């Protein structure tokens, strides 16, 4: 028997519209939400253009507050219609939803400029995968994140090695070019900066050696840079292949969702009212994560 007594049809209805995309109302709400997100991000980008900012500052300012108030109301409604608000607030989308509205309010206290961080709202477009039931795409994103996480120790060792290399080459270049080209290689830290730019194949060209020995050393570092770039790529690629073939690092619940998508089966967009997680079977009655009833009607039957 469920220990929760919902008894609030308003919450149930709001949750169905705001969190789910299986109903016409839910799809309509999510479609409007996506349009609002895209429009708000475009406004932030356009406002960064000086000519547009000078001519349409008042319009941009009003639109920014319109979008912020809309997203604030949406965030409050999401908290209201979830039976465990803290679960939603600390979830991935909950944190993103909060960060999407904070910059405008922080700008009132910290001054103009910080509202440009509102471009983080673009992350909310990840909901498009849920709305159009492209769970498999999200799974591929999890696969990449798992590969990066599993590679972190190898990458740390690699970066530590690269740091030693650029420090050595930068110091040597300072010794070679310091007395001849003192206006550019003015210190060891600045020479290390040159080594980092060179080994990463960025090549700004703001600092360059003029001696034959210095140019020879630079050539060696440039060639070494190509080999260095290939190392982290190989490390992460190897982990991705391992994740994809063996599936040892994947959580069973994520793997199950992916298998359903690949098999052409439907995965419900229904979100649990208690733990705010999704990915349930189309005919699921209880949450696969916390065990609570997914619908009020089923909860009443359980009682």
Q: TL;DR?
A:
With 303 residues, the chain is mainly α. It is 67% helix and 0% strand. α2 (24-47) packs antiparallel against α3 (50-80).
If you had to describe this structure to a student in words, what would you say it looks like?
It is a single chain. The chain is mainly alpha-helical. It contains twelve helices and no strands. Helix 1 packs across helix 3 (50-80), helix 2 packs antiparallel against helix 3 (50-80) and helix 3 (50-80) packs across helix 5 (92-110).
Helix content: 55-70%
Q: Which consecutive residue ranges, at least 5 long each, have pLDDT under 50?
A: 1-5
Give the biggest beta sheet: none
User: Which fold name corresponds to the CATH topology of the largest domain?
Assistant: Four Helix Bundle (Hemerythrin (Met), subunit A)
Structural class: mainly alpha
CATH architecture of the largest domain: Up-down Bundle
- What share of residues are in beta strands? under 5%
List keywords for this structure.
303 residues, mainly alpha, Four Helix Bundle (Hemerythrin (Met), subunit A), Helix Hairpins, 2 domains, 12 helices, disordered N terminus
List the helices and strands and how they pair.
Blueprint: H1 9-19, H2 24-47, H3 50-80, H4 85-89, H5 92-110, H6 127-131, H7 135-150, H8 152-177, H9 188-199, H10 212-246, H11 252-262, H12 296-302
């Amino acid at each position: 028997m469920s220990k929760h007594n919902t008894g609030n049809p308003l919450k149930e209805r709001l949750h169905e519209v705001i969190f789910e995309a299986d109903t016409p109302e839910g799809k309509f709400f999510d479609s409007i939400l996506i349009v609002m997100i895209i429009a708000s991000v475009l406004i932030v980008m356009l406002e960064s253009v000086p000519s547009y900012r000078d001519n349409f500052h008042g319009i941009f300012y009003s639109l920014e507050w319109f979008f912020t108030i809309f997203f604030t109301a949406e965030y409050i409604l999401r908290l209201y219609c979830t039976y465990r608000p803290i679960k939603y607030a600390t979830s991935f989308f909950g944190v993103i939803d909060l960060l999407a509205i904070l910059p405008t309010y922080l700008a009132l206290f910290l001054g103009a400029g910080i509202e440009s961080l509102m471009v983080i709202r673009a992350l909310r477009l990840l909901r498009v995968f849920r709305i159009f039931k492209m769970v498999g795409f999200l799974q591929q994103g999890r696969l990449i994140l798992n590969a990066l996480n599993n590679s972190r120790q190898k990458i740390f060792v690699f970066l530590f090695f690269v740091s030693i290399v650029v420090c050595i080459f930068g110091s040597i270049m300072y010794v070679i070019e310091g007395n001849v080209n003192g206006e550019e290689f003015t210190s060891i830290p600045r020479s290390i900066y040159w080594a980092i730019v060179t080994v990463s194949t960025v090549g700004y060209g703001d600092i360059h050696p003029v001696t034959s020995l210095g140019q020879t050393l630079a050539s060696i570092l440039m060639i070494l840079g190509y080999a260095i770039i290939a190392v982290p790529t190989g490390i992460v690629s190897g982990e991705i292949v391992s994740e994809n073939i063996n599936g040892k690092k994947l959580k069973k619940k994520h793997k199950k969702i992916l298998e359903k998508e690949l098999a052409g089966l439907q995965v419900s967009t229904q979100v649990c009212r208690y733990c705010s997680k999704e990915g349930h079977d189309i005919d699921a009655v209880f949450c696969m994560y916390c065990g609570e009833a997914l619908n009020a009607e089923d909860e009443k039957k359980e009682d």
